[in-house]
Amino acid sequence: MGFSLIHRLDGGPTFIRRFALLAGSLLLLSVTVVGDQNTPTAICNDNRTPAGILAHGALQIHLEARQAVWYPNRSDAAHLVVAAFGEEGHAPQIPGPLVRIPMRVEVSATIRNSLDHTIYVHGLASRPETSLQPQALADPTTTADAAATLEVPVGAVREVRFKSGAAGSYYYWASNDRQSLLMRTGPDSMLSGAFVVDAPGAHDSDRVFVVNTWVPAGGNAFHPLPTINGKSWPDTERLVLKVGEPIRWRWINTSDSDHAMHLHGFYFQVNGVGDQDHFQEFARLERLTVVTQEMLPGGTFNMTWVPERSGHWLMHCHMTFHMMQPENLPGYAIAAHYTPENAGMGGLVLGLDVQPSSNSASTASNAMAASSSVHKFRLVVRERPGSSRYFGGFSYDLSESATETSPTALPPVGSPLVLTRGEPAEIEVINELKEPTTVHWHGIELESPYDGVPDWSGTGTQTTPAIAPGHSFVAHMTPPRTGTFIYHSHWHEQKQLGEGLTGPLVVLEPGAKFDPATDKIFLFSRDGVESNEPLLMNGSPQPAPIALVVGTTYRMRFINITPVDSDLTYSIVDASGAPVSWRAIAKDGQDLPQEQATTKKTSGDTITVGETRDYSFTPNQVGELYLQAAAFQRMWVKTTLNIGPQALRPLASPSATLLDQWNEIGRKLIAMAEDFPEDKYDYKPAANMRSFAERLIHGASANYFFTNSALGQKLPGDEDPPRAQFKNKAAVVEYVKKSFADGAAAIKSKGDSGISDAVVDPFGYDDPQHAGKAQIRLSDLAHNLVEHSGEVYGQLSVYYRVVGMTPPESRPKK
Fold first, then answer.
1. Are 309 and 447 in contact (CB under 8 A)?
2. What DSSP element (H or E) covers 259?
3. Tell me, what's the pLDDT at 50?
4. 3-state secondary structure of 347
5. Which of 17, 88, 260, 508 is the Cys-Cys partner for 609 at CB 3.0 to 4.6 Å?
6. Lowest mean pLDDT among 260-274, 428-442, 526-540
7. Closest CA to 184 of 244, 142, 125, 232
8. How far apart are CA 471 and CA 428, in angstroms?
9. Cβ of 720: how many Cβ atoms within 10 Å?
């Protein structure tokens, strides 16, 4: 329940406070035997009820730090013995008791230390009221005023008095030394609590979520136990919300790590950010509308949003080791395998059950019904073999037809999935892996059953299934806005994301076309599941140079879908290392307001996990620039931007290049066939040689070894069609033309992926040992036939010279 600020000021909640005191005392009767002492069980604090007694404009609160047994998951599951705050006479709480007071209220607090070591308490002090933005600290978790840190020896009680100060979301915490919150590990990891100061007229129905991570002493920061209000998924609180009702949340990070907080299916507005001692409330034009918000270590933020569609949704940290079941955690053994209850997740995950209101309706369903055109795609999830450039892994094979890419040509990250605003789309996800998978459409506003979290997304009658091997699932969506988004696996993300199951999703305005020449995507990922794996740009640790044109404006779309790089930085610099300029235009698919769409230097920007950022960039001089990105542990990736004076002809695709070569030699032979006199068609330089016409027929016939192999048809015989079959020159010319036209059509139908397919080599029978067993790629077979046609052309050029004629290609051009 919320509380009434007015009633608190006039002493109204006295009965409630006394009842809470009695309930807390009764809870102390429930203890757990640990070793040789009785240790109380900590209550996981949902931060709904403020601590202390607030009366006559003053708050009195009595805190105690003591040992407690803590159950981050079910009460019958594993537990830990940790230090926890509580109100004196009450059960200990994790997080600590909520301190919530109006501005400019006098606070009188005592802290009793019932632990076996001295503690140092931070954050029980006045928050400065100033219109000036505070100077950024290198470490926002440190206390700027050392005198405000309270040293409380074993068995001692310290008292402190202060004014509440400026409105905002803050926290208090303690540890066994004076070091930063970033250095806190072991049993003291959970000594934290929310400290909220309300402005006059503030909403008291908002929810407060304290994020913390337990890291064992000397443990690995990449294998913590992350919690929200003292619980780890699937045992975090399940929130029941209503369509259309405004939601107000405060997020407070008292952990030693940053967090990329992502909301599924909806946008939310960031109204202010802060840290232990400061809070900046944003003016209306400063507020960001996002789907992912980075929360720094010791950081806080306030958010509001309105659920518009019913169903099950999530808000979670997108750093994979903060949303997975903990494995090999010292002193905390819990099953880490997939179950329908945990949906393969753990840690910082909040489940949201949005229920319909009396007048709610499905906006996406209405949009679907209003349109008769549905754009259909196939997304095949496949195993990707290793190559000289990439490790083996998984791949998304995206197409609009039933064609499949050759295994050796599968991309290390998915190709751009391009949708149109307001146009319904159906995406059939086909699983060819040996394990289940799902796909989450990150940032897209869609119906819950298609959101992609197995056994969670959806409603009571329809949920997202885990797509079993050999099965498929059709996702429906009608994107309501343009922008840059992501599609990625939501099944055991740490593995499948690290193996390559991610790709960019772009939504364009109706009638717009995606032009890769001016629309540049930079997707950052890791080549594997560990934090020390290479940092990749578009799937490569060493991406190829990119050709740009001076004076041309480019849209540059940046995507961070790494496992852990929550503060990845990126920039464009010249040869001296000086940054150039660009204009920020969008975040998370949402266009920035004019006041925020500013031109600035291309350095210093960060992008967190699960975030997208768009820029408009116009190079203003010819030369080389360098786009580089860096993550922690000195991981970086870099590519060269070659700025040219004029548009370069784009590199043709493999199939287009092959088609050009095929048509070019065909053009030359057809020109000869049409030009050579009919009365000389049967000319032979020697009796044992083919005539001019027979050589044309031979070359044309050989083309069908490629064409029929590509189309799966019967191959030509060993003998060429007889000369007598062709009554005149026109018949020979027509046969030559048709052979090249049929081959060109086969190349077009196969496309880039198909020309890499392997077929039986029709000329492999020359080797008796491998007759009928040797394989060849279609592209190589086609090149062999192009080379063969070139040989025929050379031979026929001799025929021209012998009869005293000049071949058409050798004649002066008019």
1. yes
2. strand 259-263
3. 96
4. strand
5. 260
6. 526-540
7. 142
8. 10
9. 17
Cβ pair 479, 375 in contact under 8 A:
no
Contacts (Cβ under 8 Å, ≥6 apart) of 37: none
Helix, strand, coil proportions of the chain in percent (round to 5)? Answer: 20, 35, 45
Strand partners, 194: 171
Which are the contacts of 190, defined by CB distance < 8 A and separation ≥ 6? Answer: 70, 82, 83, 84, 94, 95, 212, 214, 230
Residue 165 DSSP symbol? B
- Which tokens is 430 given? 């086909």
Task: Please name the residue ranges forming H helices in 712-777.
Answer: 729-754
Question: Quick one: DSSP state of residue 602?
Answer: S
| HEC string for 415-478 | CCEEEECCCCEEEEEEECCCCCECEEEECCCCCHHHCCCCCCCECCCCECCCECCCCEEEEEEC
Classify residue 227 as exposed, middle or buried by CB count within 10 Å of its CB (0-12, 13-18, 19+). Answer: buried
Q: Which two tokens stand for residue 429?
A: 């996800």
User: Which distant-in-sequence residues (6+ apart) come within 8 Å of 538 by Cβ?
Assistant: 413, 521, 522, 523
User: Using CA atoms, how far apart are residues 325 and 124, in angstroms rounded to an integer?
Assistant: 34
Q: Torsions phi, psi of 277, nearest 5? A: -115, -10
Beta-carbon contacts of residue 566 (< 8 Å; ≥ 6 apart): 258, 259, 260, 294, 319, 608, 609
d(CA 510, CA 244): 28
Two tokens at 730? 């026109």
Residue whose entry in the numeric block shows the structure tokens 């009695």: 22
Instruction: Report the alpha-carbon angle 262-268-272, nearest 5.
Output: 100
Averaged pLDDT of the chain: 86
pLDDT by residue (tens digit) across 406-415? Answer: 888 888 899 9
Instruction: Report CA-CA distances (Å) from 734 to 599, 673, 697, 727, 730.
Output: 61, 9, 10, 12, 6
Report how far apart, in Å, the C-alpha atoms of 506 and of each of 422, 516, 589, 612, 709 are: 13, 12, 9, 11, 37
Give the tens place of pLDDT for each residue, 311-320.
999 999 999 8
Please tell me the distance from the alpha carbon of residue 408 to that of residue 654, in angstroms, as a whole number.
14
- Name the pTM for this structure: 0.76
pLDDT digits (tens, 9 = 90+) for 512-524: 999 999 999 999 9
Average pLDDT over residues 83-106: 96
Name the nearest CA neighbour of 547 among 411, 415, 616, 650.
650
* Cα–Cα–Cα angle for 222, 226, 231, rounded to 5 degrees: 160
Cα–Cα nearest to 442, from 314, 271, 584, 614:
314
Question: What are the structure tokens assigned to 631, written together?
Answer: 């993550």
Is there a contact between 424 and 370 (Cβ–Cβ < 8 Å)? no
Query: In angstroms, rounded to a whole number, what is the distance separating the alpha carbons of residues 547 and 562?
Result: 26
**CA–CA distance from 427 to each of 380, 474, 475 (Å)?**
10, 5, 5
How far apart, in Å, are the Cα atoms of 171 and each of 46, 212, 221, 228?
A: 15, 12, 22, 14
Q: Residue 331's pLDDT is what?
A: 64
In the numeric block, which tokens belong to residue 222?
Answer: 């990449």
